[in-house]
């Protein structure tokens, strides 16, 4: 009867919402040192502004490494996007961008005329940066990510992106995974829509591969839960989100070789997949640099002797009473050129509004990370 049918439908809805939905991540090869240095300069100039305005940001992402595929429209139009927990909007380049916009020549563009499920919105979106401005407008269409099909997802079509560097970026757009409260124009995030359409719970998890020998295998992003096959459940511990916007939490302190060196007395940190490095205040980062016998610093990058990497002291982050330790090989980036290898600390100095530390991919690559929007907490576990 009708009751049985309702129960059946409810069971199906619950079942589909509990399933895991996988997105394979790929990894860009690390750029040569000179280019990486330029990305860092752009990042330093514009990241604090992005954090203070809650705006989507673009040149931030030039040094992030992990991306995956999504599609928009019917039939699907495919894009490579960076999955970013440090912003909350979805955007891709628009077919309607200017013929003078170099970025449109070098990326996939969304063409609303080719989609039968497109819904016009046209609300203008403009964000100013030191390196130019992002301009675009909102549209609504069907989003496919992994095996999920999200109806009526509103996103931005970009018609102008700041700076030349984006034109040569290998990704097309950004898939924001932050809370809705920092979404520009209050647009509902894909994760929020997945939950409201009973597709997946608002929990997602990352395994970011740090295997330098295999660039194509970047790891995995899972919507709707976690994959215990990838991590040691006995090591999983959570920290409550202290402010819903970014995935922000209280960090207890940072020690180097057992000595307190930064975040003394506690500080605010965010877990940010859209940032490749560890980022902290100038004086605290300098204290770390002074302790590891760096060779020199240039353009915000601190070079060290590659022969000393294995003897570097462990860098430990205390989060909710638990210690998370990076060895030297975890917090040093290696850059290979034709005849030589250079080594740089994966730590960047920057004064940030509202928060003190960003735990980017250098940290997140060491752990399985769970972003739990049901219970508003971030979890870290050791990889198997």
UniProtKB/TrEMBL annotation:
It comes from Dysdercus peruvianus. The active site is at residues 84, 272. Belongs to the peptidase A1 family. Its EC number is 3.4.23.5. GO terms for molecular function: aspartic-type endopeptidase activity. This is Digestive cathepsin D CatD6. Keywords: Aspartyl protease, Disulfide bond, Glycoprotein, Hydrolase, Protease, Signal. Residues 66-381 form the Peptidase A1 domain. Transmembrane segments: none annotated.
């Amino acid at each position: 009867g009708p009751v049985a049918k309702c129960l059946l439908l409810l069971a199906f809805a619950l079942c589909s919402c509990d399933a895991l939905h996988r997105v394979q991540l790929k990894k860009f090869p690390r750029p040569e040192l000179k280019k990486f240095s330029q990305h860092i300069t752009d990042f330093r100039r514009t990241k604090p502004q992005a954090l203070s305005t809650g705006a989507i940001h673009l040149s931030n992402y030039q040094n992030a490494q992990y991306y995956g595929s999504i599609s928009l429209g019917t039939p699907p139009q495919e894009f490579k996007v960076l999955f970013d927990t440090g912003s909350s909007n979805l955007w891709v380049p628009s077919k309607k961008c200017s013929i003078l916009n170099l970025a449109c020549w070098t990326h996939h563009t969304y063409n609303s005329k080719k989609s039968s499920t497109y819904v016009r919105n046209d609300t203008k979106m403009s964000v100013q940066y030191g390196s130019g401005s992002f301009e675009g407008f909102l549209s609504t269409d069907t989003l496919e990510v992994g095996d999920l099909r999200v109806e009526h997802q509103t996103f931005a079509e970009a018609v102008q992106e700041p700076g030349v560097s984006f034109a040569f970026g290998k990704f097309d757009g950004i898939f924001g995974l932050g809370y809705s409260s920092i979404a520009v124009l209050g647009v509902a995030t894909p994760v929020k829509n997945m939950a409201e359409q009973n597709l997946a719970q608002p929990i997602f998890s990352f395994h970011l591969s740090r295997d330098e020998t295999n660039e194509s295998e970047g790891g995995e992003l899972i919507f709707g839960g976690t994959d215990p096959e990838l991590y040691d459940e006995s090591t999983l511990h959570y920290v409550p989100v202290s402010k819903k916007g970014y995935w922000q939490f209280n960090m207890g302190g940072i020690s180097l070789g057992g000595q307190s060196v930064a975040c003394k007395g506690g500080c605010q940190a965010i877990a940010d997949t859209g940032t490749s490095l560890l980022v902290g205040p100038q004086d605290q980062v300098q204290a770390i640099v002074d302790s590891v016998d760096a060779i020199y610093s240039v353009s915000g990058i601190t070079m060290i002797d590659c022969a000393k990497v294995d003897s570097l002291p462990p860098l430990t982050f205390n989060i909710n009473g638990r210690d998370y330790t990076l060895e030297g090989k975890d917090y040093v980036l290696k850059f290979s050129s034709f005849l030589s290898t250079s080594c740089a600390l994966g730590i960047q100095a920057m004064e940030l509004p509202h928060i003190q530390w960003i735990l980017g991919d250098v940290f997140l690559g060491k752990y399985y990370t769970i972003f739990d929007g049901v219970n508003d907490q971030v979890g870290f576990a050791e990889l198997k």
